[in-house]
């Protein structure tokens, strides 16, 4: 694992609860796997005997039904997924698929259970960490509800760049319908809001977006330039 991976470990609630040394030793026993865009990581109904740590890329968790595909959550680098099903046992209630080239670490559930048995205090720390993460997600949802569609998209676009001023071109990390789903809107609503962002210097060309003035768009979105966004759905 590299220094960047250590940074990601420090963001994932499950690993934060372990502490840096224990988290690093747990992760180092496993080898990351590369997934192409569209490749499935696990399928609904499979035995839930592992959880996953996303090192690079984007992953969606979804269910297939009579009315088509329903996206449950979208994860980015530094996130873990599949742990809830693993703790409960049984089978994965949904499928996971890479929506961009992704590097994923699959961690054996038995290995994590051994860590918890040998370090009982970690289990309590883990519950506290998960609770804090849940509060963050609830606050994030409330923040989305309080903002217009255009502001939500502007905030998402700004999260894709580290630039704080001037013009920048960014590549959308995954398909527009998935971005719409993540931001809590329908694809047609997303398209209309993108059009309205033209008045704020945003131009879309296929999967690339040109922001004429990052600072101006940040003021519109009421978002500090360069602020990091968290994912998780």
Automatic annotation (TrEMBL):
Domain spans labelled Cyclic nucleotide-binding: 14-133
Residue ranges annotated for the HTH crp-type domain, each copy included: 147-215
InterPro entries, per the entry: cNMP-bd_dom (IPR000595), cNMP-bd_dom_sf (IPR018490), Env_Response_Regulators (IPR050397), HTH_CRP (IPR012318), RmlC-like_jellyroll (IPR014710), WH-like_DNA-bd_sf (IPR036388), WH_DNA-bd_sf (IPR036390)
Keywords, alphabetical: DNA-binding, Transcription, Transcription regulation
Domain of life: Bacteria
Transmembrane segments: none
CC per GO annotation: cytosol
PROSITE patterns per the UniProt record, alphabetical: CNMP_BINDING_3 (PS50042), HTH_CRP_2 (PS51063)
The name this protein goes by in its record: Cyclic nucleotide-binding domain-containing protein
Species the sequence originates in: Rhodoblastus acidophilus (Rhodopseudomonas acidophila)
């Amino acid at each position: 694992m590299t220094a960047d991976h250590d940074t990601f470990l420090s963001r994932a609630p499950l690993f934060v609860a372990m502490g840096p040394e224990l988290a690093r030793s747990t992760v180092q026993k496993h080898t990351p796997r590369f997934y192409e865009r569209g490749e499935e990581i696990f399928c609904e109904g499979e035995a839930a005997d592992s959880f996953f740590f996303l090192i690079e890329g984007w992953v969606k968790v979804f269910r297939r039904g009579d009315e088509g595909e329903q996206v449950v959550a979208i994860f980015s680098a530094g996130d873990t997924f599949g742990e809830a099903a693993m703790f409960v046992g049984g089978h994965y209630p949904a499928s996971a698929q890479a929506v961009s080239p992704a590097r994923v670490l699959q961690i054996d559930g038995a290995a994590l259970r051994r860590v918890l048995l040998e370090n009982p205090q970690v289990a309590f720390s883990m519950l506290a960490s998960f609770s804090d993460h849940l509060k963050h997600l609830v606050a994030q949802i409330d923040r989305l509800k309080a903002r217009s569609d255009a502001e939500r998209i502007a905030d998402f676009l700004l999260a894709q760049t580290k630039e704080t001023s001037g013009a920048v071109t960014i590549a959308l990390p995954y398909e527009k319908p998935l971005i719409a789903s993540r931001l809590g809107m329908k694809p047609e609503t997303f398209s209309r809001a993108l059009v309205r962002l033209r008045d704020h210097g945003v131009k879309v060309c296929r999967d690339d977006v040109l922001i004429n003035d990052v600072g101006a768009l940040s003021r519109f979105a009421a978002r500090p330039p360069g602020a990091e966004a968290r994912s998780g759905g």
